[in-house]
Amino acid sequence: MTKEKREIIMFLIFTLAVLAVPFFLQGSYFMNVLVFIGINTMLAVGLNLLMGYAGQISLGHAAFFGLGAYISGVLTTTYELNPWSALAVAAGANGGLAFVIGFPILKLRGHFLAMATLGFGIIMFIVFNETVAVTGGPSGLSGIPNLHISSLVFDNDMHNYYLIWSVTLVTMLLSINLSQSRIGRALRAIADSEVAARVMGVNARVLKVQIFTVSAVISAVAGSLYAHTMTFISPASFGFNFSVELVTMVIIGGLGSIYGSFLGAAILTMMPEFLRVLQDFDIIVYGLLLIIMTMYMPGGLISGFNQITGFIGGKIKGRGGSHA
Amino acid sequence: MDNSQQLFQYILSGLSNGAIYALIGFGFAIIHNATGIINFAQGEFVMLGGMFTIFFLSFFHLPLVPAIILSILFSTMVGIAFERLAIRPLKNAKPLSMVIITIGASILIRGISMVVWGKDTHALPAFSGNEPLHIAGATILPQHLWIFAITVLIIIANKIFFNFTIAGKAMLACAYNSQAASLVGINVKTMILLSFAISSAIGSMAGIIIAPLTMTAYDVGVMLGLKGFCAVIIGGMSSGLGTIMGGLLLGLLESLGAGYISASYKDAIAFIILLLILFVRPQGLFATKETERV
Which of A103, A115, A121, B55 makes the best surface tag, with the fewest CB within 10 Å? Predict the structure, then answer.
């Protein structure tokens, strides 16, 4: 079986599973968690394009998520714009912003890139909090309308689930496709060695900015969908902690793996539910998880999983060989 | 008169905050020069300094000076443990992994502090009272003088250590070229450990002397750490004059900006400066450009 075929079959199985889940898990609590997993998967996949493919860190992605949510929220409440147009404006504005700041920011490397994106994230967080006249400040923005297609309004859990997950699946499909393409290979070359990639004729500077822009647009779409499904947003959801949470999703899932990002998003979204018994201890578990995963499983859960299956597969194959 | 009085107060609080940023920046520079790592957990040691001191004061009812000394010792031990458990096992890790490990450590230290000491804000008593001094028509808190004096002492000690002691010179050698340093018999691992110990000690000291003015809590480390980083970026990653100037400049701009433009955007000022410097002069305002090795 070729690699492409395997990818297609894998994606089909995943899609079927996503479509089937609501028939087995019911109750608004579960559906709500699943909607959040969908939004976080979208964000993690977007960040993974930048971190896993191109090897560039961003500690400010919550800002793009927040900007998407706020543009959509403000346009539909204060200016009474149609939610779909607001979503498009949010995506476009975020893309434009990322493209403009991408050139100076992505010139930086390693720790300095981390600090610059972090600085950007914190500035945006302060802006969300302090522009009270526009965003409502720390108390948030409420009454954001739901999305709708003619008479079909996405206002209950089931509708939201299918809305969010169809966008998430499209994002995943496009990202998987990208990784198999010429651009995907060029990005991985940049991640390995930017200088070597440039010597081979890869326009690293522009390509990095482009993937940063794509990543920001995905975050904006996720933010806009978040605003329209929750109908309420406040700055607390878009702070530095959430940026770190997104990075954690990508890392524990596995850098460069799209299904890994889903796994990371699912685990981190459900973790607070499980850790509720621990109350404040969850932040400790969180820190430990980051350290231990980076030290002992740098490829993330997906690569750990592959290692185990590969190991078992090798054993079975080895046994088959001795029989013959 | 009233206006100039106000300006003087802004400058004074700006400079004393700036001195703290410079000290925190030193911590970044010392670790970065020895290892090439930016330690995102640097701010947590600043927090630990203040919190440990309050802990020893209120829990064991120790006098101030022993409490401060114990606090620095404990913070330094946390720094050493951090290096041994999380940094040393990772050889030749990518910057991305190092960023994440130090962020993980920072979350961990913050989380444990929150669980142990709670979420309340604590005040450390001023070292010699809160009675303001009147010097030439201006009022100044004794704590400001303490901050300036201790900062100057640390700067001098730092200078002596790096220029006149064997260990200090060995650390400098590691910063220039760790392979060559190990060839002449310098134990690079020990030097890295030492760099973590020194920077956590300086960081905790900074946290202790600022705590009487600004209060402290489990989560003050993030902002202070980032501003210290901003100072050291302005100073071009040195633990010398550049970073001191960077810290003071940042403190002044922040204080004047908060006073005359907008208090709610005070924290944003530091980050706008940080981004501008990174965009325009990533090698710092006070450093000469170096070519990067591939």
Answer: A103
Q: Which two tokens stand for residue B216?
A: 């402290």
pLDDT of residue A150: 78
Q: What backbone torsions phi and psi does residue B171 show, to the nearest 5 degrees?
A: -65, -40
Q: Domain span at residue B13?
A: 2-120+187-280
* Mean pLDDT of chain B, nearest integer: 87
CATH code (residue A228):
1.10.3470
- Shortest distance between the Cα of A287 and any Cα of chain B, in A, equals 4
Q: Is residue B155 part of a domain?
A: no
Q: Report the alpha-carbon distance of residue A88 to residue A76 in Å, rounded.
A: 12
Whether A287 and B110 lie within 8 Å, measured CB to CB: yes
How confident is residue A311, by pLDDT bands cut at 50, 70 and 90?
A: low
Q: What is the pLDDT of residue A122?
A: 92
Look at residue B107 and tell me if it is in a domain: yes
Could you please report the per-residue DSSP string of A45-93? HHHHIIIIIT----S-HHHHHHHHHHHHHHHHHTS---HHHHHHHHHHH
Q: How far apart are CA A207 and CA A209, in angstroms?
A: 5
> Considering its fold, how many domains does chain A have in total?
1
For residues A34 and A161, give the distance between their C-alpha atoms in angstroms, rounded to a whole number: 7
Give the C-alpha separation, A45 to A265, whole Å. 9
The domain tally of chain B equals: 1
Secondary structure of residue B284 in the 3-state scheme: coil
Chain A nearest-CA residue for B104: A287
B32 within 8 A of B261, measured Cβ to Cβ: no
- CB-count burial class (<10 Å; 0-12, 13-18, 19+) for B83: buried
C-alpha A84: how far from chain center = 21
ipTM above threshold 0.85: no
Cα(B43)–Cα(B220) distance, rounded to whole angstroms? 8
Contact pairs from chain A to chain B, CB under 8 Å: 121
Q: Does the residue B193 lie in any domain?
A: yes
Mind telling me how many Å the CA of B194 is from chain A's nearest CA? 21
Query: b/e map of B183-221 (b: 16 or more CB within 10 Å)?
Result: eeebebeebbbbbbbbbbbbbbbbbbbbbbbbebbbebb
**Is A111 in Cβ contact with B98 (below 8 Å)?**
yes
pTM check: above 0.90:
no
Q: Would you give the distance in Å from CA B213 to the centre of its chain?
A: 16
Residue A102: is its pLDDT beyond 60? yes
Average pLDDT score over residue span A219-230: 95
